[in-house]
Each structure stands twice: as structure tokens, then as C-alpha cells.
Amino acid sequence: MAFAQSNVCHGRCLLLLVLLLAAQTALCIRIPDRISDTTRYQPSNDQPSLRMAAFALGSFWRSEAVFGCLNGVVRTTVGYAGGSKTNPQYRSLGDHAESVLVEYDLRLISFRQLLEVFWSSHDSRQVFGQGPDVGNQYRSIIFTNGTEESRLAALSKEREQAKSKVSIVTTQIQPRWTFYPAEPEHQKFELKRNPLLLQLMGNLPEEELEASSVATTLNGYAAELCPPEIQKQIDAKINDIVKRESSDRKRKKPPPPIYSSDRTTSKDKEHRVSSSAKKKTKMSSNQVRASHILIKHQGSRRKASWKDPDGRIISNTTRDAAVSQLKSLRDDIVSGKVKFDDVASRFSDCSSAKRGGDLGPFGRGQMQKPFEEATYALKVGEMSEIVDTDSGVHIILRTA
Question: Which residues contact 248 (CB under 8 A, 6 or more apart)?
């Protein structure tokens, strides 16, 4: 789905903003100026209720998404903290940990509530890593501002430890810290992998995207880490926008020619060929469009089921069982018993199921590598075999 990059984009972005405001009041807060290259906590003079908190809980791509959908969170930024190296970079971060800086409004959410989300969103007892990510940069840290936050952090750690004496909570509490924002390509990482959402926002420039509170929320939504009720609200609103856009395009379709094709002049034919060529080039030559069906399993990076109203964690479905289910669905599609989009709507464990599996147009570097390579290898209208990614197992239908 291609959207114009002018006033239409701004109008759609504003429409999306209005709809999201209805879903989450926290987005009403003014977005402060962009964070400087090195950030220490400083209370805002303009808005005294705004505060900064920082956490390290594994990969910062996921960490940013975890906090993005919380009511009261204004903006998130990924970066490096907890070490001594000056100006760390992704490929050279020294002794820092991948971290997320959370800007929040005390009127809507407290530091104590942020701590609850922190503890529930990672394994604080894992040593030298988090999940499949291994290394000191994935360690668990709470960065505090002042004695009260340090006290709350220490109490929450004690409660977490009291849940089990079998293993030790490895989380560090660090009262003095400097935060270095990561490179632009790491900011809002999950959102950037969703071309449809980027287009709905009007394909904002990098700097505007980083500063956008709507982008902060949609980054959590794209990662399917919003609370279930917010995930479903945003689903409904985005699908409504997509349907209206589709309906608008149909209404704007030119009427059929008055004369039959045998009376069309050569000039008319040339014009039609030219117009057709222009339509084909609207999606750049390095982009493709595809739909997919995703089945998650116990080895998936995000084990929470999108289809389950309570975000049930998938713990019993093995990869082999997921592959077997997907092969059976693929056979039914190939035999003509069912349509791809119907199967996607019913069985795909991805928010794109609401659109029959449609992911919209995307280019290289926006999807996981196995998914990207499989899609680009397909011809338009061709369906893939089983494709393995960190998300689960897929079948892909290339549509453009």
C-alpha cells in the first residue's frame, strides 16, 4: 500500500495520532527536545512531572518495545550505560550494557510500576546474558536517580530474590550512570521492521521518528509487547484506516472508457501503457510485498501468543509440531481447498492476520534475514516452503 509523501502523509499521521490518543491518554504529553549525545538525568523545568529512568534487561531492541506501550511513557531511547568507556558504539561498546532510557510522566506511571515491568520482562537470574543473547552487554541493571529510587530498587530486588532461593538474582543497582544513545538504526527497531506502520506514520525522517511518542507506542505494538487490550485497540484502529484507504482508492478509480477497445486511438494506448508503467514503479525496484502465515513454538523469540486474549506464553508447542501444522495448512492452500488470506486470518500468530497476512511493501534489511531471502527468491504469486526465523515458522506468499 503506497501513500503520498506530502500533505496526505501528514494528514494520515495526524489521523493515526488522534486514534491512538483515544486508546492511550499518555500520548497527550508534549515531546521534549531530542536527547543530546550524552545524557544524564535532569528534571524538566517545563514539565516537572516528566522523569527519566534507565534499565538494562538484555537486547535493547526488545527492551525498548517492552516499555513503549505503557500508559505514561512518553518516549524511549536505546543506548549504552553502566560502563566506563566514553562514546561507545554498537560494535565497540566496551564494558557498557545495552540499555533503554524511559521518559515518563509521574502523574500517570510511577518508578515503582516501571520496576514491576522490568522484573516481569526478563530473567534476572540468568548469568552472562539474556535468553539466546550471550555476553556481558546483556546483563541486568537498574539505574537509579537519588536515594528514594535506590531504596525502591533495592526493595524490589529483595522481593524478587525472595520468590526463590534456588538461584541468585544477578541484577545490579547503579546510582551513578551516564547514558549514551545508540546509533539511529537501533532506535525504534521493531517499528522499522513494519513497513505498513511506517507508511501510516508518513515515513517520518529518522530524527522525527526517534522523538515521536506515537512511534514509541507503535514500536511496542510492532513487537507484540503491548498489554493485550491496547494491542487489540490499536489493531482495530489500524485496520479501520487500512480499510478506509482501500475504499477511498476504489472510489477514485476512473470510470471505464466510453468507447470499446477497437475504437481506442494509438495515442490513447500509448497513454495507458505509460500510466501502467508509472503505477508499477510506485514500489521501488528493490522492494517486494508479501503476506505470510506464522506459527510460533516454544523456541520462538517472542513466546507470547498474539491470538490469545491474555497473551498466553507458548510452552508446549515444539518446532516439529509447528512445522507439521504449517505443512498441513500449506497443502490445503495448494490443493485449492482454502485461500491463503483466510488461513492467515484464522491461524497466523501475527498481527498481520487481521489483514489476511499482508505485510505491505518492504525492502532489504527490514525483515529477518531468512525471511528476506526467501521472499526475494520467490516470483510474484509464488508461495514458499517452510521458512525458519527467530519468530517461528512461516509460509510466505509474494504478492508484488
Answer: none
Residue showing cell 506501550: 69
Coil, strand or helix at 365: coil
Provide the angle, in degrees to the nearest 10, between the axes of the packed helices 319-335 and 340-347. 150
* 296 in the same domain as 226: no
Contact assessment for residue 138 and residue 55, using Cβ atoms and an 8 Å cutoff: no
Which pLDDT belongs to residue 74?
95
Place of cell 501510516: 200
- Give tens-digit pLDDT for 202-255: 888 888 888 899 999 999 999 888 888 888 888 888 888 777 766 766 666 554
The answer on 59 and 154 residing in a single domain is yes
HSE at residue 160, side-chain half, CA atoms within 13 A, is 23
Summarize the confidence of residues 254-273 as an average pLDDT.
40
**Residue 86 · residue 137 · CB < 8 Å:** no
Query: Which residues are annotated as catalytic?
Result: 292, 350, 368, 391, 394
- The DSSP string of 211-249 is H-HHHHHHHHHHTT-S-HHHHHHHHHHHHHHHHHHHHHH
pLDDT single digits (tens) 104-119: 999 999 999 999 999 9
Q: Specify the DSSP class assigned to residue 307.
A: S
| Cα 150 off chain centre by | 31
Q: Which three cell numbers stand for residue 174?
A: 547503579
At 28, give phi and psi (nearest 5°): -75, -15
Rounded Cα distance, 359 and 290, in Å: 6
Query: What is d(CA 124, CA 73) in angstroms, rounded to the nearest whole number?
Result: 23
**Number of domains comprising the chain:** 2
Domain around 22: 7-231
CATH number at residue 366: 3.10.50.40
What is the residue type of 350? C
Dist CA 174 CA 180 (whole Å): 15
State how far the Cα of 222 lies from the Cα of 215, in Å rounded to an integer.
10
Better-predicted residue by pLDDT, 103 or 195: 103
Determine the 3-state secondary structure of 53 from DSSP. strand
User: Cα(397)–Cα(283) distance, rounded to whole angstroms?
Assistant: 17
